[in-house]
Each structure stands twice: as structure tokens, then as C-alpha cells.
Write a structure and sequence with these properties.
By secondary structure, the chain is α+β, with helices and mostly antiparallel strands. The chain has 3 domains: about 5-105, Rossmann fold (3-Layer(aba) Sandwich), CATH 3.40.50.20; about 130-200, ATP-grasp fold, A domain (Dna Ligase, domain 1, 2-Layer Sandwich); about 205-445, ATP-grasp fold, B domain (D-amino Acid Aminotransferase, Chain A, domain 1), CATH 3.30.470.20. The protein is built from 15 helices and 20 strands. A hairpin with a 2-residue loop joins strand 10 (about 220-235) and strand 11 (about 235-240). The protein is globular and about 60 Å long. Bound molecules: adenosine-5'-diphosphate. Adenosine-5'-diphosphate (ADP) binds near residues 165, 166, 201, 206 and 277.
Length: about 450
């Protein structure tokens, strides 16, 4: 087991990982920018190292500073959290070259999945169902027209290097295709420095369903069921559930089995998420994330398994603590992402939190790095906390969520809490009857 882990992240996820390390008796080091000296995880860590000024590229994305912090403090492993360097293959390779363990998959696996065209090709080879579309990158309009005619309109053009929902364009008819192709290419080039794009069938009413998987790096793979993340705004998840209100146990076991086998065949190590669109009973792979996800606590709530403990165990060579047959799904869980944003316009609302009171009681978990008097720096993303609620079934979970939202107090800044208070009373949400476009339509109606 590791002696000392360096946490290369900030906010609620840094605290989340720190808690897991403390439970396992591992010493913790956190790195932080000058904007985060007062952060909760900095206060709670055994050691902290200031690695630079507020802009992420000079601090949280500064590989040299982070490696230097490992060497100064003698950390033998790094947990990257999510975002920042968590899916940076070069970072994983550099750590390996310094004999520091990256708590995550190999640089090569990160590289494959970071290139969406390559990821899709790999998924297909491993027997995972994919969205019908082009086999590789599309450069010529003629080729785009041929593929689109074959799979049928509407189609979506997506950036191979894409992420965060950027660089996607829908073409409903052949007449739209040329503009969509050119805009997607130039947007991808500008945003990611790589203008490779590909085409796939645009699904009109899918749900976003993702499978939590784990590999032990020596040919074993397990799945932890799915999360339904269909409630999205601008392709960003807002509310997540486990299990999905749309799947039955048989479908779960089938798609879970396919994913676990794929992970085993790939020789994958650590936590991963295989993301699908789900429509009319069919799954279509869209991408794989090679890290811990923001929404992992809903899976922890229904399985009772600490996924960060498992990540640390696997990375240290200790293997998984569980087998597939030990993973049982108990009840229902929902996570609400609480952002420091205006609940209608979603414009960021940094500032000082004058009062912060979190709900408690059975089935309630709040993962947050903020506190009363904390000043939210304007440099980073606006997630200030996550409310995770667990119940014996979805009805109980929703009742408890409504109560918890009533108790939650965040004063001094605007947050997305009022949006969740509205959603919890909505009949479609109560029935679990929504797809990936539901929230956008709902917000447009409310305006
Ligand atoms: P990113 O890495 O940018 O998040 P994804 O491939 O994961 O990109 O897609 C993000 C979101 O975009 C999906 O959750 C879904 O809402 C939408 N999307 C992606 N591909 C399709 C598709 N083929 N049809 C319909 N919607 C899609």
C-alpha cells in the first residue's frame, strides 16, 4: 500500500479523495494555487504545497510543479481526481518515468479513449454496441454525404478530440451538411488544436446511460451498474441517478456483462465509465472516461462500495476487494450538482458564502469543500457541492430529496438549488420520464 498520496486537484473532489486516504491510513499531500490557500482540503491535509498562481495552466495543470511537489514531499502516488490532469496521458507517462504511481489507467489506455474515433473503433472491436456512423475521420464533403445517406438523417458531426460537449453540430438534411462539417471542423481546430471530426446518427430522444466499470489490470473486469445522466444543460450533467428509471435488471446485467468483459479484454486498470445513449431498448456507445466521475457517489450509495478505496487498492497492486457477484444494488440514489450560478441564466456567481448549512439525516450525503465565510474564487468551475440522497426505492429517494433541498441553505451567492426544488416537484421527473433534451425544453418554457 502507498505511504503518501499527493492529490492533484481542488474543491469537493480533493476533499473526497483526502477522506478515502485518511480512512486507509495513508498520508496526504495537497497541491494548491495561491487562490486556494483557504480551501478546506488544504486545511485538512497532512501537508500542502503551493504550486503557483490562480490560472489553472500555471498551477493545477503545471505538470513540472506537481512532479516537483511529489519529489519534495516523498509522495509515492498521485490521485488526479476528475478534470485537470486526470485524462492527460503525458502526465501518467511522466509520473511513471519518475517511479510515482498515477492512480488511474495506463497512459496508453488514456490515449486510446481520449481520441474518440480510436475509442469508438476499440469499443466496436471489444463487442460494445456503438452509434452507427463513419469508420474514421471525415474530411471530404462527398464522403460525409455518402455516410449520412447510408445511416440516414439527422446526423451529428463530432470532434474526435472533443470534450465538455463542445464541437458538435447536427445536420438534419443534406443541405445542412456542408456548413455543419465546416463549422464542426473549425470549432474543433480552435478548441482542441485538432480538427478531425466524424459523423454519427443523431438520436432524437435518447437517455444518457453510463456504466461504472473497474479493471484490476490483470485481466479482470467488473461493472457497478449504471447511472442515468439524461438531465443535462448544454451537454453538461445536472442531476444523476442510479439505477436508471428506464432499465430493468435483465438489461443492466446484459450491458454490464458486455462492459465488464470489454474492460477485462482490454487489460484496463482502475475506474472507468463507459457512456451510452439509450433509445428504444438499444445501447449506443459514445465515449469512455478513464477516471472517476463527478457523479460516482450515486453508485457508491446503491452498492455500499467506496470507489476511491478501490482505485487506490488497484493502483497499489492489491487488486479489487470485490467480485462481480459481491456487487448488489440496493435502493435508489439521486445526485444534484450545486453550482454557484444563477438558477435561470446559469451565469457564474462567485463571491463570499455568508452562511452554509447542509441537510442531514438518514440517506443524505453532501460532498462539498465550502463553508460559511468561504470566498469562491472566480478562476475555476462553479461546482460548490453535491447533494446525494439514497432511499429504499425511487419514491422514498425523491421524498427525502425534497426534504433535504428544503433544509439546504447557501447565502451570499446564487446557486442552482432553486432549480432542483422546482425539478423535484415536476411530474415528469417524479415518473422518471425524461430524455437528454427534457431539461433544455423545460428551461426554455420557464423563460
Ligand atoms: P463530450 O465528450 O463532449 O461530453 P459526448 O460524446 O460524451 O461528448 O456527448 C455529450 C452529449 O452530447 C451526450 O450526452 C448527448 O447529450 C449528446 N450527443 C452525443 N452524441 C450524440 C448522438 N449521436 N445523438 C444525439 N445526441 C448526442
Amino acid at each position: 500500500m502507498f505511504q503518501k498520496i499527493l492529490i492533484a486537484n481542488r474543491g469537493e473532489i480533493a476533499l473526497r479523495v483526502l477522506r478515502a486516504c485518511k480512512e486507509l491510513g495513508i498520508q496526504t499531500v495537497v497541491v494548491h494555487s495561491t487562490a486556494d490557500s483557504d480551501a478546506m482540503h488544504v486545511r485538512l491535509a497532512d501537508e500542502s504545497v503551493c504550486i503557483g498562481p490562480p490560472p489553472s495552466r500555471e498551477s493545477y495543470l503545471n505538470i513540472h510543479q506537481i512532479v516537483a511537489a511529489c519529489e519534495i514531499t516523498g509522495a509515492d502516488a498521485v490521485h488526479p481526481g476528475y478534470g485537470f490532469l486526470s485524462e492527460n496521458a503525458k502526465f501518467a507517462d511522466i509520473l511513471a518515468a519518475h517511479n510515482i504511481t498515477f492512480i488511474g489507467p495506463s497512459g496508453d489506455h488514456i490515449r486510446i479513449m481520449g481520441d474518440k474515433i480510436e475509442a469508438k473503433r476499440t469499443a466496436k472491436r471489444l463487442g460494445i454496441p456503438v452509434v452507427p456512423g463513419s469508420d474514421g475521420a471525415i474530411t471530404e464533403e462527398k464522403e460525409a454525404k455518402r455516410v449520412a445517406a447510408e445511416i440516414g438523417y439527422p446526423v451529428i458531426i463530432k470532434a474526435s478530440a472533443g470534450g465538455g460537449g463542445r464541437g458538435m453540430k447536427v445536420a438534419r438534411t443534406e443541405a445542412d451538411l456542408e456548413v455543419a462539417l465546416q463549422t464542426a471542423k473549425s470549432e474543433a481546430g480552435a478548441a482542441f488544436g485538432d480538427d478531425a471530426v466524424y459523423i454519427e446518427k443523431y438520436l432524437e430522444k435518447p437517455r444518457h446511460i453510463e456504466l461504472q466499470v473497474f479493471g484490476d489490470g490483470s485481466g479482470h473486469g467488473v461493472h457497478f451498474g449504471e447511472r442515468d445522466c439524461s438531465l443535462q444543460r448544454r451537454h453538461q450533467k445536472v442531476w444523476e441517478e442510479a439505477n436508471s428509471p428506464a432499465l430493468n435488471a435483465e438489461e443492466r446485467a446484459r450491458i454490464g456483462g458486455i462492459c465488464a468483459k470489454a474492460i477485462a479484454d482490454l487489460g484496463y486498470s482502475g475506474a472507468g465509465t463507459i457512456e451510452f445513449l439509450y433509445e428504444n431498448g438499444e445501447f449506443y456507445f459514445i465515449e469512455m472516461n478513464t477516471r472517476l466521475q463527478v457523479e460516482h457517489p450515486v453508485t457508491e450509495a446503491i452498492t455500499g462500495i467506496d470507489l476511491v478505496h478501490e482505485q487506490i487498492r488497484v493502483a497499489s497492486g492489491g487488486g479489487l476487494s470485490i467480485r462481480q457477484e459481491d456487487i448488489k444494488f440496493n435502493g435508489h440514489a439521486i445526485e444534484c450538482r450545486i453550482n454557484a450560478e444563477d438558477p435561470r441564466t446559469f451565469t457564474p456567481s462567485p463571491g463570499t458564502i455568508t452562511h452554509f448549512h447542509t441537510p442531514g439525516g438518514l440517506g443524505i450525503r453532501v460532498d462539498s469543500g465550502v463553508y460559511s465565510g468561504y470566498r469562491i474564487p472566480p478562476y475555476y468551475d462553479s461546482l460548490i457541492g453535491k447533494l446525494i440522497v439514497h432511499g429504499r426505492n425511487r419514491v422514498e429517494c425523491m421524498m427525502r430529496l425534497r426534504r433535504a433541498l428544503d433544509e439546504f441553505v447557501v447565502d451570499g451567492i446564487k446557486t442552482t438549488l432553486p432549480l432542483f426544488r422546482d425539478l423535484v416537484g415536476n411530474p415528469d421527473i417524479a415518473n422518471g420520464d425524461y430524455d437528454i433534451h427534457w431539461l433544455e425544453k423545460y428551461l426554455a418554457k420557464e423563460d
